[in-house]
Amino acid sequence: MSNRDFVKQIAAYVPSVLVPGVINFLALGIYTRLLSTEEYGNYIFLLVLITNFKTIGYEWIKLGIFRFYHRESERRNLPQFLTTTGVVVGIVSGLIACGWVISLLYIDGGDFGRLAVAGLLFLFGYSFFDIILQLNRAAIQSLRFGVLSATRAIACLGLAVTLIVFAARDAFGLVLGMVIGTWIAVAVDLPRWAGKRRAGRFAKPLAMELLRYGIPLALVATVGLVIATSDRFIIRFFLNSQELGVYAAGCDLADQSITLVFMVLNLAIYPLILKAAEQTDKGPFFQQMSDYSIYLLGVTTPIAGLIAVCAAGFANVVLGEGFREPAAAVIPWIVLATYLRGIKAYYFDLVFQIGLRTDLQLLCSLPAAAANVALNLALIARFGIMGAAYAAVLSQAIALVISAWVGRRVMRLRLPARDCFKILLAGGLMILAIAWVPGGSHLGGLVFKFALGSVIYLGMAWGLRVGLLRNVLQNLYPGR
Questions:
Q1: 267 shares a domain with 152
Q2: Within this chain, do residues 187 and 317 fall inside the same structural domain, yes or no?
Q3: Do 195 and 328 lie in a common domain?
Q4: What confidence score (pLDDT) does residue 277 get?
Q5: Are 48 and 1 found together in one domain?
Q6: Torsional sign, CA 410, 414, 418, 421
């Protein structure tokens, strides 16, 4: 596949991720202005619980859908595949409901108990919506993927703000708006997929294949949750909801910014990589993985660097006043942790999934999870929320090194080390240059720093003869 085709694939998915991403940025700014740090902390704690149940229960189903959809479609078994998947989702949902009710026994009543009841509806709606998105992604329906994502984001924000302002100025109004908005988005596309499963029958062998493929991934996701959420649980129980609220605001601002870019690249390119991996000739696959590494680093490195070096201005522009100062302190560290996690998850971990060695992916996750919990317990007690940020960087670095090392047992990727080094060098020089530029505490100054940093980075990448930049420009503008 040519670089021009790569760019076209990325461009096809930019609106589907960018629109919800921008709306989520707006939502973060609005919620941190409408809610107190304590109420926002309560919402974040509920969201952590929902994310844990959703990931453990449904993430493996999503990955199984993506892995086997094309195969079953080519075999003309799509109705059977959808019916089987639907039955599996129903069984899992029943188990999740039981687990959620049991978990309420260990949560204090009052306002949070009311939040938890609404949270169960949000959990199911959010999980079903993600499965519908995955079906559309597997079918390479990027436009519908984007419309659904935007529909949910707009509906959730509008309804949440309305309920917070006019009904209840607390976390319950926010959660209720998210519940209604999510189920509206589910209702938009669920009937279409339900119609496609007509005449399909449940196939036990297919369900078992999904289970065998998915269980290791479910365990991997569970271990990943330890790394992703242990800091928030520890802050909530050892500090308080206010500290959790300001920490989560800074984390989400940094994490969403970088993850958004990783997701665009992965959504666009991974289906093509997976298709190439299934061919007898593996040469195109290894070449696509090599090109993908340059795109991944070349795009995410400058964005991560700019957000880190402009953290104070970024927090000042987006977040509410009570969140800004502590959030600005953690943002650079969370940017680095998210950057390391993205390289691991969206590049090195792919070899385990493509090579059907998800058992090794699980083994890679265990040491990093153990280190994360230990580091959080030690560092949060001493440094507060900054300790959680330090622990995130260290644990993600450990996870990245282990994944890259063990992944070589599955397949040896041809990483273009020279171009990768040039990209990192260009990004580092850009950070040093922007750090000396004054201002940036308001929107105008922030935009100027981002624009100047982009120019510096592109200039350095061009001067260092990074293949990514030259190839992209030569394919987009053949006359140059």
A1: no
A2: no
A3: no
A4: 67
A5: no
A6: negative
Q: Residue 340: its pLDDT value, please?
A: 93
Q: How many CB atoms lie within 10 A of CB 210?
A: 22
pLDDT band at 11 (very low <50, low <70, confident <90, very high): low
Q: What is the pLDDT of residues 162-214, one digit of tens each?
A: 998 887 677 888 889 999 999 999 998 888 888 777 777 888 888 888 888 77
Task: With respect to residue 213, please indicate whether it lies within any of the assigned structural domains.
Answer: no
pLDDT by residue (tens digit) across 121-171?
999 999 999 888 888 877 777 778 878 888 888 899 899 999 988 876 778
Report CA-CA distances (Å) from 196 to 79, 144, 160: 6, 16, 33
Residue 110 inside a domain? The answer is yes
Is residue 227 domain-shared with residue 270, that is, in the same domain?
yes
Number of domains in the chain: 2
Do both 350 and 475 map to the same domain? Answer: yes
User: What pLDDT band is residue 250 in, cutting at 50, 70 and 90?
Assistant: confident
Asked if residue 165 is part of any domain, the answer here is: yes
Rg of the chain over all Cα atoms, to the nearest angstrom: 22
Averaged over 323-332, what is the pLDDT?
Answer: 87
Residue 27 covered by a domain:
no
Most confident by average pLDDT, 39-53, 164-178, 180-194, 409-423: 180-194
* pLDDT given at position 454: 84
Of 343, 347, 311, the residue nearest 327 (C-alpha): 311
Q: Which domain covers residue 437, as residue numbers?
A: 1-12+223-480
pTM assigned to the model: 0.73
Tokens at 16, concatenated: 């589907």
- Asked if pLDDT for residue 3 goes beyond 80, the answer is no
- Going from the C-alpha of 321 to that of each of 145, 317, 318, 399, 463, the distances in angstroms are 35, 10, 9, 35, 41
